[in-house]
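User: D-3-phosphoglycerate dehydrogenase, Cyprinus carpio carpio:
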Amino acid sequence: MAPVSVKRVLISESVDPCCKTILQENGIEVTQKQQMTKEELIAEIQNYDGLVVRSATKVTADVVNAGSNLKIIGRAGTGVDNVDVDAATKRGIIVMNTPSGNTISAAELTCALLMSLSRWLSALLMILQFMGAELYGKVLGIVGLGRIGKEVATRMQSFGMKTIGYDPITPPEVSASWGVEQMSLEELWPQCDYITVHTPLMPSTTGLLNDTSFAKCKKGVKVVNCARGGIIDEAALLRALESGQCGGAGLDVFVEEPPKDRALVNHPNVISCPHLGASTKEAQARCGKEIALQIVDMATGKALVGAVNAQVLVSSFSPDSHQWILLGESMGRVLKACTASKEPFSQVHVTSLGESLKKSTGFLSSAAVVGLLTEVPQKGPNLVNALPLAAETGITVQTDHKDNEREACVLEVSVNGRSYKAVGLVQAGLPVLLELNGSVFRQPVPLTGHLLFFKATNSTELLLSVTGVLAAAGVELQSFSASTGGGGEQWYCMGISSLLGDIGALKSLVKEAAQLTV
Ligand SMILES: NC(=O)C1=CN([C@@H]2O[C@H](COP(=O)(O)OP(=O)(O)OC[C@H]3O[C@@H](n4cnc5c(N)ncnc54)[C@H](O)[C@@H]3O)[C@@H](O)[C@H]2O)C=CC1
Ligand SMILES: O=C(O)C(=O)COP(=O)(O)O
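Assistant: Predicted structure for D-3-phosphoglycerate dehydrogenase:
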């Protein structure tokens, strides 16, 4: 993978100082600010290649779009719901997080809230309520059995709690191996003395606990939310607290932070924190260090860790994928230049051939689309946004893999019902073109530097005329490849020292001509 140039990074809030230090030690200029307003961020973001945030900075589409040089948004923490990931993806910006750096801290705060709710450990609540309850023997329902859910389960088991849970993705046998019996939410609600939620906030988890689910719970159930505000519906929670259906709530997160509506925070049976789950020295040191190292690794082309919107890029970080990516891009560019029609493509089909390319079809197709879209009048597409941009432009991209003795990439595109095709591979570490629109080259064409393609009938006089045009323009001929094609029209490719200023003279000699730089 080619390094992503990151020279200047803005840290827009309180990220551990080790983040700045590590970035600076690796030659990156860093500005760290606290509590930037959205207006300040929009005004300044264009000066940076990278932005590092926690949860307070709202990286909305207008911030993303103002970041004309942005290549990376790093979240020193888990949730990326404060970042408009779709807007970033469309702009080709990588979004990455450090999802395990604060797991233990968030789990520990959850456990602290569960304990506080059992014994009313808060100055105010202790005055109001003297009688607590043991956790021992009680049932804890854990909704979301990922990193934090698991750590909460194993900790609360040591208090003798029975842990049950629900997660649509974590297999029941996996959670069973750390002591959590899975069941449907319908079965879970009525069994729990305590419920804690540990899912991301998304449409399927918004209002997971609502009036209907509270009604199915044991009277007096206690709930904890250290995940995201809104997973427990706030209005329903207040109603359940007031009716006694909910016996207490421990809340670290709110729909609006800090919450302007203080009804929940001020409720006598609520223990609340201002989003402190990750606020420990250890978690911050881990997240700050991890995000800095991940950015450095990406910028040096070493590895791509923690990217949430660039799966294609992640798989492209294998040692020899770089040349295949160049091949895909160059083939896209060659086909774009050599199709007679200037209409937009409607369909792109990429086939990878050969065992070792089985897992490369994803990045080969993105790379080919990057090459095909280079004339899109926006900032150049890259492997992050190629496929979303293609979809937006109405291009259908299909991929395929076929077993073959030799590794190769076949790129076919359709324009106005006509198909065009290129076949290439990486030979001796360099991308080469084997075939173009039915013409098979006698010598593979090295896809590097300035290339002149033309289609003509095989004739020595014509080739002399073409070299004459090059000489007249002061352009040197550096390599020459002709395709096998008998007497009919065939494609030729010349490696040239620079592009011709005007291709008109050449076009008068040959059927089709195109020049490009790859
Ligand atoms: N309060 C704080 O300071 C912190 C909050 N968090 C938040 O905690 C939450 C959990 O974080 P992690 O455990 O690291 O995430 P994770 O990705 O490891 O686990 C989330 C789990 O939720 C499950 N899930 C998805 N949809 C579900 C549904 N409809 N019902 C039940 N489960 C569902 C997923 O399958 C996954 O196993 C996130 O929202 C994160 O942003 C994380 C760190 C600190
Ligand atoms: O990592 C997360 O998802 C968190 O909620 C922690 O947020 P913070 O880094 O403390 O602003």
